[in-house]
Amino acid sequence: MKYLSICLLLLYLTPAKAQVEEDIQPPVDTASTLILAGNQEAEIAYNNGVQFLSEKKYAEAMAAFDEALVHNPGFLRARQNKAVALSSLEHYPKAIDGLKIVITSEPQNNRALYAIGAAYYQMGELPQAIENLSKAIQNGYLGFEAFYLSGQAAFRQGDYDAAIASFTLALRTKKDSWEIYNDRGSAYRMQEKYTEAIEDYKNAVLLNNSSPIIYNNLGSAYRKKGELDAAILNHSMAIQIDSRNYLAYNNRGSAYIDKKLFDKAIDDFRKVIEIEPNYAYVSSFIRLLVKTILL
User: Fold this and answer.
1) What's the chain's average pLDDT?
2) What's the Cα-to-Cα distance from 12 to each of 24, 27, 31, 105, rounded to whole Å?
3) pTM for this structure?
């Protein structure tokens, strides 16, 4: 841990006198000395907080940042990092309150703006999230996180064009993120652009071939495109990775219905009920299956 050390050294040299006399010291500016000492204590407490934050000791980090703010109430870095600790503990409203104080003094602080947007996103307040994330980007935030989170917020609002645009910008900075490819693929899938969705899901698989989420999504895109064998294969891959992935069983069962392989579909839906008895969609699929068989 690096500490900021402020050392004040006053050296006064006077000519030697023939007779002995009491040393005369110049007056000390006590006010300045106290301010500098306070700043030193604030920096020490701040650096302790940063260390605790890196160790994910969030309560200790907040206590250290509070100590820094006692010594220096205008210490914006301490207030900003305390907000990070608060967000890590899911105290999002308090984090936002602290960050707004920072923004009042530093309106172009893109990291603080990003942190506000991220906190609003976690609270489900998506318009405020997008607003602050956009401000962070406009003020020079270069990390992929702002674009990615903006894309997720837009996706949750059903604005798939905006989601795709944000995910595409995120990929310019973070080309090795399977999550971003997966999420952009899902936005394309929601727009029924299945070819583009499949391409993104395949790119995600190239980056991470052990995620059942990607294979399940890829299978769903293939099914929507009418490529049922490919759909079944990818849902089966998801199940091979995670044998309790009831969504993959459900989706494979739906593909089996489309292929009129009803016995296999029933087996998959029974597996869904075994794993997740309260999964509502499976009952509708069973009813659909019964009607299909009776036709």
Assistant:
1) 86
2) 10, 12, 20, 40
3) 0.80
CA distance 137 to 170: 11
18-49: b or e for each residue (b if 16 or more CB lie within 10 Å)?
A: eeeeeeeeeeeeeeeeeeeeebbebbbbbbbb
Q: By the 8 A CB rule, do 114 and 145 touch?
A: yes
> What is the separation, in whole angstroms, between the first and last Cα of the chain?
74
Q: How confident is the model at residue 59 (pLDDT cuts 50, 70, 90)?
A: very high
Q: Counting beta carbons within 10 angstroms of the beta carbon of residue 193, is it exposed (0 to 12), middle (13 to 18) or buried (19 or more)?
A: middle
Are the C-beta atoms of residues 43 and 75 closer than 8 Å to each other?
Answer: no
Identify which of 109, 73, 113 has the alpha carbon closest to the alpha carbon of residue 95: 113
* DSSP letter, residue 1: -
Could you give the CA distance from residue 18 to residue 35 in angstroms, rounded to a whole number? 40
Could you give the CA distance from residue 237 to residue 226 in angstroms, rounded to a whole number?
Answer: 18
230's tokens: 């490919």
Note the pLDDT tens digit of each residue in 183-208: 999 999 999 999 999 999 999 999 99
Question: What kind and span of H or E run contains 216?
Answer: helix 212-225
Evaluate whether 99 touches 83 at the Cβ level (below 8 Å): yes
For 140: left if phi > 0, alpha if psi spans -120 to 50, otherwise beta; the answer is: left
Q: Are 85 and 115 in contact (CB under 8 A)?
A: no
- Distance separating alpha carbons of residues 255 and 257, to the nearest angstrom: 5
User: Rounded to whole angstroms, how far apart are CA atoms 230 and 294?
Assistant: 27
Query: Does residue 291 contact residue 285 with C-beta atoms inside 8 Å?
Result: no
* Tokens standing for residue 78: 């301490």
Number of Cβ within 10 Å of residue 237's Cβ equals 18
Handedness of CA 228, 229, 231, 235 (dihedral sign): positive
